[in-house]
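anyone seen this seq b4? input:
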Amino acid sequence: MADSVVDSILAARYYRVGEKSFEDVCRRVANALGETPEETKEYFEAMMSLEFLPNSPTLMNAGTPLGQLSACFTLPVNDSLPEIFDAIRWGAIIHQSGGGTGYNFSHLRPEGSPVRSTDGVASGPVSFMRVFNAATDVIKQGGRRRGANMGILNVWHKDIMKFIKSKAKEGDFSNFNISVMVNDEFMKAVASGDLDREWLKTTDGETVTVREIWDGIVEGVWKNGEPGILFYDTINRKNPTPQLGDIDTTNPCGEQPLLPFESCVLGSINLAKFIRADGVNYDALDKMTRMAVRFLDAVITKNVFPIEQIKEATNRTRKVGLGLMGVHDAMLMLRIPYDSEAGRNFCEEVMARINDVATEESERLGKEKGTFPAYKGSVWDKQGKIMRNAALTTIAPTGTISLLAGCSSGIEPVFSYAYTRRNTVGKTFIMVHPYFESELRRVIAGLGFTGKEAEAKRDEVISHVHETGTVQDVLWLPDAFRAVFKTALDIQWKDHVLMQAVFQKHVHASISKTINMPFSATKEQVADAVLLAWKEGIKGMTLYRTGSREDVVLALEKKEEKKEEPVAAAEPKVVQQLPFSRPRELDGRTFLAQSGCCRLYITVNTMNGKPMEVFIRTVGAGCEASSNALGRSISTGLQNGVPYEKFVKQFAKVSCISALRNKNSEGMSCADVVGKCIELAATNQAITTLDNWTVQTVTPGAKKGNPCPECGEPLDFGEGCNMGICKHCGWSGCS
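predicted toks r here
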């Protein structure tokens, strides 16, 4: 807990009046929930040891007058104006208290339907979603959290195509994740190739085929990760209280399918804390699981719910969501590759054990304190189990609490073993994953490197990982090391899906996990991933193609330009070459700049004011060949129509250890310095002095399209939250 970033997260989100340490937070929460001194002590020690942490609202609000301990809620949206605005009002109250909301808009009449009371026509679900989005936009949750929503529409709703396309433009519905609820009938039509089947007719009488809907879903997922997909029949086959009705709504992150007015009561065990040299300490893990079930059941009892309907619905089923974090860390400690059969077997064994023990503890509590009120007619009633809780397990994203615990998020693989972090005074430094670094040192020593040579090799690998995100191309490292230390982007999409499926077998609710794909992934691969998820019994999925959100606006603009063409053109697979013919003479400027390892002479030649060529020479320790190759690559791109801003934007994200260590470096890397010089030439600016770089137009590491709404640093979309997670301040879309 000495990490300055953790300290800043605690101060910004969790400390209450008079609190100065994480210990103070844990003591407040334990005192609020424990019914006996022994129980209070057990809760306190579980949190202080970072072996278990509840969701953020519990850490924030337990023992305070607000007392709202649930993370998220589901609200019904029924088809009348008073009911619609009731839902907006309830959502506003929830957001103000620190929660997120999930809505299914399928009960609203489609756009254009007649409204008898006014002799008018309905505006449809998408139109009303804008009202919900605007309401969320103006509410700051308790001064510490911003509103997050899940918007769902069933695939059999007549406005499904409008809904699928509702977030096609970057920035629209910024306070919503959206998901399509698909049923088995639809998926069977897709799987069997019955794509030209008429699926529905719109209010205008237009036929919509399975193909149109399926292609729309795949296109949206491929372009920007939305919509998500929820599998209606799979969810309801596992509905623990079918007598209360079907489930058609989830929380904003999708891991909790819930009935109307139910709420998320979540907590996660840090699996990495239970790893020993010979494997998992199951005795300790069992004990922690039993404690966690009692803890979360106490959260329901002590919760101060924002509206009465939520109190009634949550107490009626007493669902809790006990999950895991630090899963990949545990696998790294045991040297088990994430994308292996052994890895999946390990995870299945662990989750099955937790699910069974949690069920046993809830049955014990049921005999002690009574069953949940809706027990009669539930699946547990039919099994003869006297249960306290209708559901026990889920896998949440754990974005912020995993930062507090210092472990990997949920069941996600590590996204990067070395990344840049900025502290509270603006100093940028490289964070290296501790298990990666320790194992790297051991491997390098085993290869015969010692002293300064070993340190140089270590720095070389870390710098490479920081710049590229992978060690898979560092071929002098042993195969076994590279097999274990794969990142989320090194792992094939199929292995992501199969890992989620393994957990889903032993989870009562659902799972928040990102199916990561590289930028080069095709729409066909997206379609295959969704089909595999359905076949494997997954309840819902989020798929994200790395970098897709940064370029989606440009892609859409290109598509819109083609709308007026009488014949639809096939999507180009390569960038079209421009008819560039170099004149004998070009205007140019040469800049002298300092990077981490050398000085650079950077010449940028322009034609009609646009950069067209870049030449780079190094003075000092820099690599002349690499600089030459970089200049040629940039020049080729500029001459084939790539905007210079693309290079500036991408190079600003590149950093290296030499530059970060050298206080005189005028950029985060040689590439960053080159990008700045291209910007100077394009905008006709100048360096005033070598020691005082004046360009302010480029912020290293910033993503203009996806900055954190609180600190402005780039959001991470690789760890289960479709709204992003900030590794700098702890912000996430649902925490």
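The CA atoms of residues 194 and 488 lie 34 Å apart. Residues 341-369 form the longest helix (29 residues). kinda curious what u guys think
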